[in-house]
C-alpha cells in the first residue's frame, strides 16, 4: 500500500483537486484507492459528492482517541467504484486542542497507526492536507512515504515551495523516516509567455523533483468538483482528465521509495547482444522546447535508457530517440514540454483504460 500525502501550506494551488482527481484516475486504471481528507474544510469530501454535515462520524472520531483504540474502517465510505473516502468535518480543526496534553509522538502517529491497522485492501492512500504545517499535516507526513507538492505557476508559489521543502527536510529528522518529494506544476496556462517561462524556471530549479506531467487550467475540473465526481468520471475527454491520467501513469511507473532507494543513482544500461535491436524514432516540432519518450520498455520513465539527439531542418527541430529493445510489441508516448502525446507519425495505437492513446511499436 503506497501512502502519498498532498501537501502545500499555500491555499488555492490545487491540493484537493490533485488528491481527488489523481485518486479517480488511479481507480479508473483498476487500482483500489482510499482518499483521506485531513483538511477541516472537508473540500475533498465535498468533491467526492458527500456532505460532511450528513455524516454521523468522521476522521475526528478516529484521531481523537489514543492510537489503535478505534479502527479507520469504521468511518470509511464508498465514493465510487474502486474509490473510498475517510471523510473530514470542521470538527477536525479542534483536534490540536484536544490532544494538547499528549506527547508529540503520540499526537503525530495517530493516522499512521490507523493506516497500519487497515486490512491489506488498498493499493494507494492519498491524503489531502490542510493549507498549513500543523498537527494534521504532521500526521500525514508521519503516515506517508511519498509527498506530492502541487505548485501553481507563480514566483511567490515557487518561493513557498522552497520553504516547504526545507520544512519537510527538517520534519524528516523529527518524524524519523525519509519522505520522497515530487513537485507537480498546476494551474498552467500555456498560452501565456509568463507561464511558459515560469514552468521552465521551475524545471531548472527543481530538476528531477518535478513530474513531467503538467496540470493545465481547465474549467471542467471545477465543474467536476461541484458535481461531486472525479474528472475521470465526469468528463473523461477533458484536458483535466487527460492530465490526471498522465499523472497516474507517472505515479504508477515510479517505484515506492523503499524500492527506489535500492537502485543505484547511475544505472548501467545493457546494450547489444544477439536479441537486441537498435530502434530509431523521431519527433518533429517547430515550437517544442523539450521532447522525451516513455513506454513500457523503460517503466514509463521519460528517456530512461534512451539515447537522444537533436538537430534542425530550417525552423523545425527533430528529436531522434534511439532505443535498444528485444523483439516484441511495445506501447509508448512522447512527453512534449510536460504534456503526453502519442506519436503523430505512427498510425498504430491502442486506447488505454483512462481514455488516452498509446502508440504501438513492433520490433521484429
Can you lay out the helices and strands and say which pair or pack?
Blueprint: E1 2-6, H1 15-28, E2 33-37, H2 43-47, H3 59-63, E3 77-80, E4 83-86, H4 95-98, H5 104-108, H6 110-116, E5 124-128, H7 135-143, E6 146-152, H8 155-175, E7 180-186, H9 193-206, H10 219-227, H11 231-234, H12 239-253, H13 257-260, E8 277-285, E9 291-295, E10 307-313, E11 316-325, E12 328-336, E13 339-341, E14 349-351, E15 357-363
Parallel strand pairs: 1-5, 1-6, 2-4, 2-5, 6-7
Antiparallel strand pairs: 3-4, 8-11, 9-12, 10-11, 12-13, 12-15, 14-15
Helix pairs in contact: 1-12, 6-7
Q: Any overview of this molecule?
A:
By secondary structure, this protein is an alpha/beta fold. The protein has 2 domains: 2-260, Rossmann fold (3-Layer(aba) Sandwich), CATH 3.40.50.300; 277-363, Immunoglobulins (Immunoglobulin-like), CATH 2.60.40.10. It has 13 helices and 15 strands. The strands form 3 sheets. It has a 7-stranded mixed beta sheet, sandwiched between helices. Strands 9, 12, 13, 14 and 15 form a 5-stranded antiparallel beta sheet that branches. Helix 1 (15-28) packs across helix 12 and helix 6 (110-116) packs parallel to helix 7. The longest helix has 21 residues, at 155-175. It is elongated.
Amino acid at each position: 500500500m503506497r501512502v502519498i500525502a498532498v501537501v502545500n501550506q499555500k491555499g488555492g494551488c490545487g491540493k484537493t483537486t490533485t488528491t481527488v482527481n489523481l485518486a479517480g484516475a488511479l481507480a479508473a486504471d483498476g487500482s483500489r484507492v482510499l482518499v483521506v481528507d485531513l483538511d477541516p474544510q472537508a473540500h475533498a469530501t465535498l468533491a467526492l459528492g458527500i456532505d460532511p454535515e450528513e455524516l454521523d462520524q468522521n476522521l475526528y472520531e478516529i484521531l481523537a482517541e489514543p492510537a489503535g483504540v478505534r479502527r479507520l474502517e469504521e468511518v470509511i465510505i464508498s465514493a465510487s467504484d474502486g474509490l473510498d473516502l475517510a471523510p473530514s468535518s470542521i470538527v477536525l480543526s479542534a483536534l490540536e486542542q484536544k490532544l494538547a496534553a499528549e506527547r508529540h509522538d503520540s499526537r503525530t502517529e495517530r493516522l499512521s497507526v490507523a493506516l497500519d491497522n487497515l486490512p491489506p485492501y488498498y493499493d494507494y492512500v492519498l491524503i489531502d492536507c490542510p493549507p498549513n504545517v500543523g498537527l494534521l499535516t504532521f500526521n500525514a507526513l508521519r503516515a506517508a512515504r511519498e509527498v506530492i507538492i502541487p505548485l501553481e505557476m507563480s514566483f511567490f508559489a515557487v518561493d513557498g515551495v522552497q520553504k516547504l521543502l526545507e520544512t519537510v527536510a527538517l520534519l524528516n529528522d523529527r518524524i524519523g523516516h525519509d519522505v520522497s518529494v515530487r513537485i507537480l506544476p498546476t494551474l498552467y496556462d500555456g498560452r501565456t509567455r509568463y507561464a511558459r517561462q515560469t514552468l521552465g524556471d521551475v524545471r531548472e530549479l527543481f530538476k528531477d523533483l518535478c513530474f513531467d506531467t503538467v496540470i493545465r487550467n481547465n474549467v471542467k475540473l471545477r465543474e467536476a468538483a461541484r458535481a461531486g465526481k472525479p474528472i475521470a468520471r465526469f468528463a473523461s475527454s477533458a484536458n483535466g482528465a487527460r492530465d490526471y491520467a498522465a499523472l497516474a501513469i507517472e505515479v504508477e511507473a515510479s517505484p515506492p521509495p523503499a524500492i527506489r532507494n535500492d537502485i543505484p543513482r547511475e544505472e548501467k544500461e545493457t546494450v547489444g547482444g544477439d536479441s537486441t535491436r537498435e530502434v530509431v524514432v523521431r519527433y518533429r516540432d517547430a515550437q517544442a522546447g523539450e521532447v522525451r519518450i516513455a513506454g513500457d520498455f523503460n517503466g514509463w520513465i521519460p528517456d530512461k535508457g534512451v539515447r537522444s539527439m537533436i538537430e534542425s531542418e530550417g525552423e523545425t527541430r527533430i528529436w531522434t530517440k534511439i532505443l535498444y529493445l528485444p523483439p516484441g510489441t511495445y506501447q509508448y508516448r512522447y512527453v512534449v514540454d510536460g504534456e503526453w502525446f502519442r506519436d503523430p507519425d505512427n498510425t498504430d495505437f491502442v486506447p488505454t483504460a483512462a481514455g488516452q492513446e498509446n502508440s504501438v511499436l513492433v520490433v521484429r
